[in-house]
Design a protein that fits this description.
Helices cover 76% and strands 0% of the residues of chain A. With 335 residues, chain A is mainly alpha-helical. Chain B is α+β, with helices and mostly antiparallel strands. The chains are: A mainly alpha (335), B alpha+beta (531). Chain A: GO terms for molecular function: dipeptide transmembrane transporter activity.
Chain lengths: 335, 531
Amino acid sequence: MLNFVLRRIALLIPTIIGISICAFAFVRVLPGDPILAMAGQHGVSPERYEVLREQFGYNLPIWQQYFNYLGSVLQGNFGNSLATKRPVITEFMTLFPATVELAFCALFFAVIIGIPAGIFAAIKRGSWFDQAAMGVALTGYSMPIFWWGLLLIIFFSGYLGWTPVSGRIALSFFLRPITGFMLIDTLLYGNWPAFVSALRHLILPAIVLGTIPLAVIARQTRSAMLEVLGEDYVRTAKAKGMSPRRVVNVHALRNALIPVITTIGLQIGLLLGGAILTETIFTWPGIGKWMIDSIFKRDYVVVQSGLLIIALIVMAVNLIVDLLYALINPRIRVK
Amino acid sequence: MKLMTTLLAASALVALTAGAAQAKQLVYCSEASPAHFDPGPLTGGNDFDASSHTIYNRLVDFKPGTTEVIPSLAESWEISEDGLEYTFKLRPGVKFHTQPYFTPTRDLTAEDVVFSFERQMDEESPWFNYLEGMTWDYFQGMDMPKYIASMEAVDDLTFKLTLTEPNAPMLANLAMDFAAIVSKEYADQLEASGDLAAFSTQPVGTGPFQLVDYQLDTVIRYQAFADYWEGKQPIDDLIFAITTDASVRAQRLIAGECDIMPYPAPADLEALQADEDLTVVEGEGLNIGYISYNTTEAPFDNPEVRKALTMAIDKSAIIEAVYQGAGQDAKNLIPPTMWSYDDATEADVYDPEEAKRILEEAGVTDLTTDLWAIPVSRPYNPNGQRVAELIQADWAAVGVTANIVTYEWTEYRERGKQADRKGPFMIGWTGDNGDPDNFFATLFSCSAIGVSNYSSWCNDDFEAAIQAAKTTSDQEERIELYTTAQEIFKAEEPAITLAHSKVFMPMKKTVLNYTLSPLGTHSFRYVDVQE
């Protein structure tokens, strides 16, 4: 097992180098100039422009810029934002909990609805429920997020007034972050109304962000379940006279869930990368919105370091999922 | 232990907030996060709203709703005969904010004023570069280092500014956001502790509100400063709820999550205007959308050709289709609300037949040109691509083929500045200080060629008029000179003056005394809420 872990970690090194090169190159092929983008409508004088280029090292050959960057990253220095001048890592750590909180709520929503819907559709294959559920799943999968989010806001927040329009908590609650997770912080403060408010603020964004994973999970569960239901051991169990409920719950479900868990693991990785559209519509102060704002501001440093940090996190999550999987399923280890 | 302390501090805060349940609160759904809270080096309107209009004051200010300069931290001032010496008498007893991180021991003095400007021009000062890669864009952009000969704190309450040459717009410059007055005592404290960067995140000013808390990309909280020199503000708590998407801002306003918002999307205006709990305040923006001919490029070097091409454009159709009623035909470079506006200027006429005739007479047939379309939506031009398409069609009718080109915004402006740029270039300007010099000299003086004179236009008579207007402080004479400048501009047509846009500010009916600023800034000084 240790061997397997070490091998998996060693494999990550070339990936990390590749990603750092991509992140670095990506911001440089974007049109636009970060120094000019920083200046206002008056622009910046040519002399000052040269001074700043030198100060930021943009006058150096591109490979040298890359190695300087890599060097400071290895020392844990991801640089300072060009716009706010604050360390990128500090901004990231401030905003990341919001993304994590939203991602987990979205996933929770997707799992508690997606798995039962998938199972039920498989058992009642071809029924009106199956067709309706899979139709809805397909619609959910192809839903333009921005439109879907606005639609929900206009209907539930604007028209019915049931949910708040955006933000993480009502403005009347002034709580300084402890962990950065609003649900946890409000409980730590023992402030029940604040907890309820935070929960209400999570509903719509979690639904919007969870829509696509929900569709994926439901369809995956259905097909895995259908496959397992056709296996010999299920037929044997039925032949033994076991109740249909027990056949599904004990024999079929356990095996069907293995591919579903892999799917969920992949979704976690994706969701942690920040949900640009959902965070933008709901003014959710997470890293997706932070990244897109920085791209518009041509904040090179935030974009390249942000990409790198996000990639590292996604890789770490995938690694953990892989390892857990190996723990559960020895066949993978051996291969 | 740390968690414990945080918890205790937080419960104290909660208790405070709970105790102040009766506090009057105003929530402003702002459009973007501020970079930080030191207005000196900043350039964005949202940066200034969050810093210079809440936390700070300037020596002089713009009278709310106008561009007229009025006393602020300076009670009065005198300008010497030769226009070179400005002596400001400071208001006595002006207090700086007391914050957990700073307790002032003295009132505002002339030392603070000297420091506020010196840090922006003295390259030896540790404050000139106190944040990595910072630039003092406005201070440099307004050419302040060129005009300032010296600054002196004559005594505690007298500040003397000596110029290298007379400069009539100087007073208006000092009312601009970058000229905010900061605390030298606080700067000294930070210098001693070595944490200079805190100056931008933990601000101390003399303004109507003091910063309580900023949560990145989420919310900024201010409270009214009890010892504010004009007296405490009617509201107790001012909250900026950062909401980047315009449609979401509108929904938040409708749902009552905020009291007031800037920059509504044109598509939402109707719904906002129809809501009976809301009012949409409307005003004229201090801006101009225009299209610069490259006057050094044939055939655009011929004023007759330029005028004919302008004549071929149906401006009213553009204003109708693109500005959707939120714009007005610009017959001059400066907007009508600005002093010295020449109302006698004749508006451009739309006459394709006549345009065609003039072009033929000038020997211009089968002209093919690039037409530069602004790539971003700006208040002065909401949709450059659409404007370009309409002009393309109008010009096709008089036999001119226009190829629309565009680039990413910074790239666009860089390429537009090049002397050998081909074709008319769409651009615009939003006034900084309400002085006509800020339009005429910034955009069309000879020295602005390669910087912001996209027409590469250098006309001796025009230049003489605007330079004379800059150096005299006689208002009547300045008006006359700018009138001349506008006449020359119209006769020469270095650019098509397209439109001035309107600005809208939707708010709840319970918001009282909000004044729309022609400069596009958002200030909540004097604002009250009805309970």
